[in-house]
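TL;DR need C-alpha cells for one chain.
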Amino acid sequence: MSAASCLLTEDQFLCSICLDVFTDPVSTPCGHNFCKTCITEHWNINVPCQCPNCKKVFYTKPELQVNTFISEMAAQFRQSAQQKTSSSSSEQQAAKPGEVPCDVCTGTKLKALKSCLVCLASYCETHLEPHLTMAGLKRHQLIDPVENLEGRMCTKHDKLLELFCKTDQMCVCMLCTVLDHKTHDVVPLKEEYEGKKAELGKTEAETQQMIQKRRLKIQEIKRSVELSKEDADREIAGGVHVFSALKESVERSQAELIDTIKEKQRETEKQAEGFIKELEQEISELKKRSSEVEQLSRSEDHLHLLQRLPSLNAAPPTKDWTEVSVRPPSYEGTVRRAVNQLEETLRKQMKKLLEAELKGVQQYAVDVTLDPDTAHPYLILSDDGKQVHDSDVKKNLPGNQERFDTCPNVLAKQCFSSGRFYYEVQVKGKTDWDLGVARESINRKGLIPLSPQKGYWMILLRNENEYEAAAGPAVRLSLKSQPEKVGVFVDYEEGLVSFYDVDAAALIYSFTGCYFTEKLYPLFCPSLNYGGRNSAPLIISPVNYTE
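>> reply
TL;DR here they are.
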C-alpha cells in the first residue's frame, strides 16, 4: 500500500471542495471523489445536484458510500504528510505573539507564510506547498499572512467578498450582486483595488508634495526668524550706538555747563578777592594816619603840632567805594544754550536715523500705475498711468461702481493685502493735494469724509502751506520745509502708514496701530485746478534710493 501511495501525486488525495486530505472519501457516479461531508453539504445548498468538478447534473440525489480503498490511501498520505511536517517543523519558527499562526498545524503552531483568500486559511511553509505545486490550488489567491480571514466573508451569505459595489461603496459577494445589489455598478475586487491603489499612489505623491512644501515652509520660516534676529541684533547695536552717543553728548554738555558756571563763579570770587585786598590796603593806610593823628592830638608842644599838622591835612589816596559792588554772575540762558546745543546734536542724530529709516523702507518700492476706471471725470491721466491732474472739464465717462463721482480721486490698479510696500509721488508746484491709501470697500460716491474710520489713511495740503493728517479729527502738521516729493510706506501686518519728505529725509506723519482686514489701494487726489493755480500734476516717480 505504501508503495502504491508513492505512485500517486499529492493532489489526488485532496478534496476539491475543502482542499484538504480526504476524510471519509466517496465517489460520485461520474467518477470524482470528495469528502462525504463536503459533497453532502454542497448538494444540500445547490439543487439539483451537480458535480463540482465536471458539472454533471444528477436529478436524483445519488446514494454515496465511503470508498474504502481511497480512504486507506488518504490515511497513508496523511500519515506521511504529518511525518514530513513534524520533521520540518523543527527547522521552522513557531508563531510568536502578534504573528499569524498556521491554521493546519497541530500541536505547536508554526508561523504562517501566506494566507489563502479562497481557503480562508493561513499556512506555514510545509502546509503551503500544495498551493504552490497542485494545479487546482495554484489558482488560489495568496497574500501575506493576515488574521481574521472570516472578515473576508459576506456575513449575510457566507460567501467570499470578491466584488465591489461602486454604488454603495462596499465589498460584496456573488449572491449580493443578484439580490441586494442587482442593479448596482459592481466590479471585481481586483479592479477596484487597482483603481484605489492608483488613487492612493496619487494621494501619497500629493501628500509627499505637501510634506515637502511644508518642510520648505519650515525652512523659510526658520530663515525668516534668522533674518529677523539679524535685523533685531543690527537694530539693537545701532540703537545702543545712538543712545551711547546721546548719553555721551548729554554727559559732555552737562560737564561743559558745570564748568561754565564754575568758571563764572571763580571769576566772581577773584574779583571779590581783588576788591577785598584793595580795601584792606586802604584800611591799613587809614589806620596808620589815624595813629599819627591821635599821637599829634595828645602833644603839648605847640610848635610841634603846628609844624606837623599841614602834612596830616592831605588824606592818603583812596577809592570811592560807593558804587563798587560784587554782583553774582548771571546764569540766565546758560542752561538753555546748553540744551539748545544738545537739541542740535539730537536733531543731527535724528536726521541720520531718518535717512537710514527712509533707505530701509525704500527697499519695499513697488510699481504703481493709475486705474482709469476709478478716476473722477474731471481728471486727466497720462498714457503711462503715472501722472494725474484736474482739468476743470467733465468728461463723459461710464458711471461704473468703481468710479469716484464727486471727489477728484483716482486709485491705483495695484492692491495689497499683506507685507510692506512703498511708492513716491512728486507734488512739486501744487497748492492742494491728498495722498495715502484706502481700503477696497470705501464709498466712492458723493462727498467723502476722510478718516481711518471711513477707510482712508491720508495727508493733505491746503492753501499752499497748510498740511494736515486726516486722522479724524484732523491733525495740523508743522513742517520745516514744503515737500516736493512724498514717500508713502505701508506695513500691513504692523498696521503702519508713514509719509516722508523724500528730499529732506524727514518723517511727515505716521498712522500707527491700524487694523487692516481688506485690500489696500494707493489713492491720489490732485485736487481742483482752481483756474490754473493748482494745475501741476501728481507724478508717481521712480524711487531713487537715498544714499
